[in-house]
Amino acid sequence: MQFTDAQIAAWVGSFVWPLFRVASFLMVIPIIGTQLVPMRIRLGLAILITLVIAPLLPSVPQVDAFSFDAFYLTLQQIFIGSLFGFMFVLFMQVFVIAGQMIAMQMGLGFASMIDPSNGVSVAVLSQIYLIAVTLIFLAMNGHLVMLEVVIESFKAWPIAIKILGEGGFGMDLLWEMIMRVSWLFVSALLVSLPIVTAVLIVNLSFGIMTRAAPQMNVFSLGFPIGILFGLLIIWVSTTGLVPQFQKISEQTFLFLRQIQEAGLNG
Question: 166 pLDDT band (50/70/90 cuts)?
């Protein structure tokens, strides 16, 4: 059997271009894209997923591997995969920022630790929230939904040389995805608002008691009682974490679905 250079380039391209999108997606998303998962495992998982979905994808353009079109296609796939992965990073960081807000209000902002997944220093309360929502996310098969999103993206934005200019992935859609950062802070504030409000009421009560009895040392009494009361409120509000997680996850998945529908209609 003899194969031409064009046939070999088509076979390689049908695997390489989707691999760039899937690999960049897996390198960014939470859980799989963290430092806890070795790079070799992520790369092997990307190759395995690409081998499974490659026969199901639309045909890819045949371009020279050393041409400008090939470089442009590579950047496109990395950009799209990283952008969709960034949406899931914003989703998980909602609870990290909420934990940071609660910790600062309770006086636990100094209690920080190194996050092993990202290698940065975060509040202990944020790490507790992150571990909790990670377990909930895996229990709800959220990792399968993430893979579904990146696979469906090939239908909305197939691999083409002029995908970003002619498809539904225009500047308006790109700007809408970037502005999800504002949704991140709004959602984090809504998650932390009940606990922050309860702790604020305790601090206001101590302020009134200090005005009524100036001899009382508010620093020696207010901080410990505020921390204990905050921990009590966190324990009581733990039952409401799952409904909040479901609501925020539904908003995220609905937004991604709308983005994909815009790509199909575009």
Answer: low
Region of 170 on the Ramachandran plot (φ > 0 left; ψ -120 to 50 alpha; else beta): beta
What is the dihedral angle through the alpha carbons of 226, 227, 230, 231, rounded to the nearest 10 degrees?
Answer: -150
In degrees rounded to 5, what are phi and psi of residue 113? Answer: -150, 165
Q: Are 263 and 167 in contact (CB under 8 A)?
A: yes
Q: How many domains does the chain have?
A: 1
Find where tokens 């960034």 sit: 86
Which residues, at least 6 apart from 203, have a Cβ–Cβ distance to it below 8 Å?
222, 226
92: tokens are 């998980």
Alpha carbons within 13 angstroms on the beta-carbon side of residue 77 total 27
DSSP class of 239:
G
pLDDT tens digit string along 105-132? 887 777 777 766 666 777 788 888 888 8
pLDDT tens-digit profile of 21-32? Answer: 899 999 888 888
- Residue 121 has phi, psi (to 5 degrees) of -85, 125
Give the C-alpha separation, 54 to 72, whole Å.
Answer: 20
The DSSP line for 99-141 is: HHHHHHHHT-TT-EEE-TTT-SEEEHHHHHHHHHHHHHHHHTT
Host domain of residue 182: 5-265
Compute the distance between CA of residue 138 and CA of residue 31 in angstroms, rounded to an integer. Answer: 9
Cβ proximity of 184 and 172 under 8 Å: no
